[in-house]
Amino acid sequence: MNPKIILPDDHVRKPLPGGLAWVAELRRPDLPQIKGRLKSPLGECCLGVLCRLQGRLFLRGNTWYDGTDDFAHSDYESQYKLSQANPLGPILRGSGSFVALKNGEKTPMELTGLNDIGYTFPEIADIIEQVWDCQ
C-alpha cells in the first residue's frame, strides 16, 4: 500500500497531544494489529493503541472499550472507536476522521477504515504525521 495521501490545499494540521508517543508505538515492529475493534486477545487496532497509551482501555465482560473503570457504558460504539469522553475525541472525531483528495474530490477518510483494509501500523503512523501536528 502507499500510505501517502493527498490533502486539500486548505487543510490545517491540528495539534495532536500525545501524537508523538502514539506514532512511535505504532512503529514498534512487534506490535500485533487487528481489525474490527479496539482490542482483542490477538492485538489492537490503531485507535486501541492510542487508548492503551492514554490508560483508557477498559475491559467489561470479554470486550474492551475506550473508557475508564467508572465508565457508565452507554456508548456501544466505543469498542470500535473513541468514546465521546475521550480527550482526543474532538480532534480525531471518534474514528480518526480526516478529509483527503481522491480523484481531485474531497473525500472523508478514517484511520479505522485504513486499519481495517490492511494499512500497516507504520503506514498509519505516517498518515497521522501527515494529517495532524503530533506533539
Overview of the molecule:
With 135 residues, this protein is α+β, with helices and mostly antiparallel strands. The chain has one domain (15-134). It is built from 5 helices and 8 strands. The chain has helices at residues 19-26, 46-54, 89-92, 111-116, 121-131, and strands spanning 15-16, 39-40, 43-44, 57-60, 63-66, 97-102, 105-110, 133-134. The strands form 4 sheets. A two-stranded parallel sheet has the order 1-8. A two-stranded antiparallel sheet has the order 2-3. Strand 6 (97-102) and strand 7 (105-110) form a beta hairpin. It is globular and about 45 Å long. The model has no long low-confidence stretch (mean pLDDT 92).
Cα gyration radius (Å): 14 Å
User: Quaternary status of these chains?
Assistant: single chain
Query: In percent, how helical is the residue content?
Result: 25-40%
Number of helical segments with 4 or more residues: 5
Tally of DSSP β-strands: 8
Low-confidence stretches: none
